[in-house]
């Protein structure tokens, strides 16, 4: 059984892409946000960010049992992906997107300006990637990949991820750590400070 993670800040397309991979290639997936709510694995709300605070002990107790029973390959998607404790995640994919795109996607959700700003700032500095790379006991650094989804369709992203799952060694240019919005001239950082 192989375990794949898809992470990234809200609006980068994690759920849409996981659904497409499932549809085209048959990998089952779990949305971690839904798992947390359904199984009451949170210990509070963070009202300023309008998000759940995960009870990491309950979360990992849940996943210990889950992994014992899981026999087929599985994708776990969501921005809680780096909280998982697992000895051998095969591949982690971080979806990235241009801050303008994130802004356009999060505005219609009715998020507060503060929440939108916090998410864009997290994308600007690549928080999802840094958190994943810190978890060396979870996944090897060379198996953490980043995809800039800005100009890709959901299907193109799904196809690319499927290839990375199958042949990770063929995609060294996508290994995490190369993408930087801070050095991209099309990003007006001052808008987000
Ligand atoms: N590559 C893309 N091209 C066009 N639209 C996209 C793309 N990726 C995502 N979207 C759109 O952006 C919105 C957010 O996508 P989605 O819910 O899959 O993101 P998410 O990362 O799972 O967000 P969350 O973490 O909040 O669940 C959806 O309306 C989706 O259709």
TrEMBL record:
User: What Pfam families does the database record attribute to this sequence?
Assistant: AAA_18 (PF13238)
Which InterPro entries is this protein grouped with? Answer: Adenyl_kinase_AK6, P-loop_NTPase
| Keyword field contains ATP-binding | yes
* Entry keyword set: ATP-binding, Kinase, Nucleotide-binding, Ribosome biogenesis, rRNA processing, Transferase
* Stretches the record annotates as LID: 108-118
Q: What is its EC number?
A: 2.7.4.3
What is this enzyme's catalytic activity, as reactions?
AMP + ATP = 2 ADP; ATP + H2O = ADP + phosphate + H(+)
Residues annotated for ATP binding in this entry: 11, 13-16, 109
Quaternary structure, per UniProt, is: Interacts with uS11. Not a structural component of 40S pre-ribosomes, but transiently interacts with them by binding to uS11.
Q: What does this protein do?
A: Broad-specificity nucleoside monophosphate (NMP) kinase that catalyzes the reversible transfer of the terminal phosphate group between nucleoside triphosphates and monophosphates. Has also ATPase activity. Involved in the late maturation steps of the 30S ribosomal particles, specifically 16S rRNA maturation. While NMP activity is not required for ribosome maturation, ATPase activity is. Associates transiently with small ribosomal subunit protein uS11. ATP hydrolysis breaks the interaction with uS11.
HAMAP family, alphabetized: Adenylate_kinase_AK6
Q: Which family does it belong to?
A: Belongs to the adenylate kinase family. AK6 subfamily.
This chain belongs to which protein, by name?
Putative adenylate kinase
Organism for this UniProt entry: Candidatus Lokiarchaeum ossiferum
């Amino acid at each position: 059984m192989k375990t794949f993670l898809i992470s990234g800040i809200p609006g980068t397309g994690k759920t849409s892409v996981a659904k497409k991979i499932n549809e085209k290639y048959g990998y089952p997936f779990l949305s971690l946000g839904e798992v947390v709510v359904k199984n009451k694995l949170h210990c509070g709300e963070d009202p300023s960010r309008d998000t759940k605070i995960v009870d990491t002990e309950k979360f990992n107790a849940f996943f210990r049992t889950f992994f014992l029973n899981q026999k087929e390959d599985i994708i776990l998607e969501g921005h809680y992906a780096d909280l998982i404790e697992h000895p051998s995640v095969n591949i982690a994919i971080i979806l990235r997107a241009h801050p303008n795109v994130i802004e356009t996607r999060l505005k219609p959700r009715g998020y507060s300006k503060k929440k939108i700003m916090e998410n864009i700032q997290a994308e600007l500095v690549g928080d999802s990637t840094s958190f994943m790379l810190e978890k060396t006991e979870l996944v090897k650094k060379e198996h953490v990949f980043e995809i800039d989804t800005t100009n890709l369709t959901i299907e193109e992203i799904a196809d690319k991820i499927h290839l990375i799952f199958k042949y990770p060694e063929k995609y060294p240019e996508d290994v995490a750590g190369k993408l930087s919005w801070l050095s991209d001239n099309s990003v007006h950082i001052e808008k987000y400070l």
